[in-house]
Amino acid sequence: MLSRTADHLYWMARYMERAENIARILDVNHRMSLMPQSDSQAEQAWGATLRIMGLEAPFHTRYGDITAESVLDFMIFDAQNPTSVRSCLRAARENAHAVRGTLTSELWETTNATWLKMRDFDSDKLYDEGVSSFFEWVKFRSHLSRGVTLGTMLQDEALRFIRIGTFLERADNTLRTLDVKYQLLLPAGEVEGGSADFYQWSALLRSVSAFEVYRKVYRDLITPARVAELMLLRVDMPRSLARCMKEVFNNLRVVSNDHSAETERRAGLFEATLRYGRIEDIMREGLHNYVVQALGRVQDLGNRIADDFLMPVSRPALAA
Amino acid sequence: MSKRSFYDEMQDATGGVRAHYKAYADWLVEMPEDRLAQKRAEADALFHRHGITFAVYGEKPDTERLIPFDVVPRIIPAHEWAVLERGLKQRVKALNAFLRDIYHEQAILKNGPIPAEQVLGNAQYRKVMQGVKVPGDVYAHIAGVDVVRAGEGEYYVLEDNLRVPSGVSYMLENRKMMMRLFPRLFSRYRVAPVDRYPDILLNMLRSVAPLGVTDPTVVVLTPGAYNSAYFEHAFLAQQMGVELVEGQDMFVEADHVYMRTTRGPKRVDVIYRRVDDDFLDPLAFRADSVLGVPGLLAAYQAGGVTLANAIGSGVADDKSIYPYVPDMVRFYLDEEPILHNVPTRMCRKPEDLEYVLANLADLVVKEVHGAGGYGMLVGPAATKAEIEDFRDKLKQHPERYIAQPTLALSSCPTFVEAGLAPRHVDLRPFVLSGEEMQLMPGGLTRVALREGSLVVNSSQGGGTKDTWVLEA
């Protein structure tokens, strides 16, 4: 397959997954903001959302104070923000458009229809009707893309690069989501293990659709170590880091070429350390430090995959 | 209805329905009119969802428009098609013979009716092709010949498109759409199928591979996703099951062309290129082009790769060469042309210019190198100011223009705001030339949606129809 084609497929999948994850993270924050809290807490929480996505600076150059509405505007509709839901869905569609011949018509039509609907969303109407239904919509469109991908695409290289894109992006997002908790301060007077603390951890679980999963797996109280274990090491949990890396590694092995051995080795090593890792060791080392280090490894793999398989091409900048 | 001055595909001069439209007219009577409106809306929604759109140059980058699709088919009876088929094959055969000749012996320039400077001084003539041998002596592998009907069995060729003719994807998609919208209508007619086109195209491309290549790799070369015809490039690549490449995906080494794949370089043997000559190779043509492949021309000249269509084909479809095509048929094939040429005045000739200036209000004036319906004057439809404006241009650069009488393009019933009404149509059938010649029974019918308009180009508000060639 053409390197450029692989590149478009990979980015199509990453952007679609990213749109979903932004919706998830915003949804959690939105739900938390409905709890009784002071203005400064609310501001702090929305600020943390921007921080984990590395978007504090661009936000402040374009908007003034942090309010729920301004952050939602910036993260959902802002065409100038390359990481807004709108920009991601558009980028997914542009990448699909560039290789539409490689996609099944169902997958192309799904991706195209998602963008057409997003383009026509009216922000005023959205706030009247409640943003949660919008986040649901984004998640379902992403579910639909994935389902159509698995249900219609030939199991060849094209599918492998799509899957690598999906899981590398998801690994990145799972790590960032876990880090939200680190960035959040507990309200004054609250203690670790208290009700506000519980609420934050459970919101975090919900953001990765893992609240019920947690109950099922642990049948016990929510504790930070168990949440971290679920999100990092449980290979049966579809959004965990371990599952993501397993998928990345397995798909990489199928597309392997003459110069990809080192990339495969690093992916395999990472996968193995997750498979045999223990949460106690990670917690002892410090969860935040672990997350930062793991994000580095995910990024390294992304760079190496680009060098080994995907021709670095200068894509025309997306117009507003 | 007032008396028509043009031929209608469906109704004869007395308002009766022509034999080949009879079954359609019967069907139409049973169909309530709001049903047609509903079907058209359905077609629009489907085309949008499928992303069968085109970009319009000069508009915002986000703009992707649908080419309006009309739900009334254009029907051509078998006996008329038989004549068209013979005429089109004859014409394309002569055009290929002409191209081979001018890039080799130039017999037609020495002993024939065409003044040498008309060819050798033409911007589309590529000196670099002189003496280059191309597989099977085929230059114009894919030709989209624009034909209009003026009267009963009377077809005129407007243009021979031999560079990168587009529109075939609409021929295929329109048929799919009609079958989806009106399945039962197809049981009333024996419509010749067109859906084998991608197979036939692939076979043709493989048949012109460089000598000695037994299992050729074919690719489609596109300028990219922002090109107005990108949908078609992607569509054809997908339907043929070959790679859709951009210039940046390929490189040349030792007179062979390779594409960059996830598993390393892979040799390319035949390139169905949808990029104009000027942009194919920055080393040979426009140096600022990023759409091409450096060194491609050298590999081509050395016979390492086949390009379809050949570099330099454009000289044969140039409007200044067009008047000589009937002569080519006589010169190379020793036959009389089956299809008419539109009588054409060449404004570079003083006597023709004089005539054109005196009759501007009745003529269609075209730029010799223009395309897409841009930069032309349709005398009868133009305002006084537009005519005077053109008069100045003509006087300044007469050699840039040709003029033709305003043809009474035939009309075909078309579904417009007010219901069914006649609108003018043309027809672009596609002729494939490889080891043998083939013509799809069908083509792209373009329709001028504005009342009275004769301009069918999609960039100028034209639409398309499904074209039914009936089986005998």
How much of the sequence lies in strands of chain A comes to: under 5%
Structural classification of chain A: mainly alpha
Classify the helix fraction of chain B into a percent range: 25-40%
In angstroms, what is the radius of gyration of chain A? 20 Å
- Principal-axes geometry of chain A comes out as globular
Number of H/I helices of chain B: 13
Number of strands of chain B: 23
Overall pLDDT level of chain A:
89
Q: Largest interface, and how many residues on either side?
A: A-B, 30 and 27 residues
Strand tally of chain A: 0
First and last CA, distance of chain A: 31 Å
Number of domains of chain A: 2
- β-strand percent of chain B reads 15-25%
What profile does the largest beta sheet of chain B have?
5 strands, mixed
Report on this model:
The complex is a heterodimer of chains A (320) and B (472). Residues 312-320 of chain A have low confidence and may be disordered. In chain A, 74% of the residues lie in helices and 0% in strands. Chain A has helices at residues 3-33, 39-52, 56-62, 68-77, 85-98, 105-119, 123-129, 131-152, 157-183, 195-207, 211-218, 224-232, 241-255, 261-275, 279-285, 287-309. Chain A folds into two domains: 1-153, no CATH class; 158-310, no CATH class. Chain A contains 16 helices and no strands. The radius of gyration of chain A is 20 Å and the shape is globular. Chain B has 472 residues and is of the alpha+beta class. In chain B, 29% of the residues lie in helices and 24% in strands. Chain B has helices at 22-30, 33-50, 78-102, 107-111, 116-120, 168-181, 197-207, 230-240, 296-301, 314-317, 325-333, 350-358, 384-396, and strands at 54-55, 64-65, 69-76, 142-151, 154-161, 218-221, 243-245, 250-253, 256-261, 264-268, 270-273, 306-308, 340-341, 345-346, 363-367, 377-378, 401-405, 411-416, 419-428, 430-433, 437-439, 444-448, 462-469. Chain B has a five-stranded mixed beta sheet. A five-stranded mixed beta sheet of chain B has the order 13-5-4-20-21. Chain B has a four-stranded parallel beta sheet with strand order 7-6-11-12. Chain A binds chain B through residues 1-6, 94, 97-102, 105, 108-109, 112-113, 116, 157, 161, 255, 257-258, 309-311, 313, 316, 319, and chain B through 48-51, 60-62, 224-226, 230, 234-235, 237-238, 243-246, 248-249, 259-264. Chain A: This is DUF403 domain-containing protein. Chain A: Residues 1-310 form the DUF403 domain. Chain A: It holds the Pfam family Alpha-E. Chain A: It comes from Azoarcus taiwanensis.
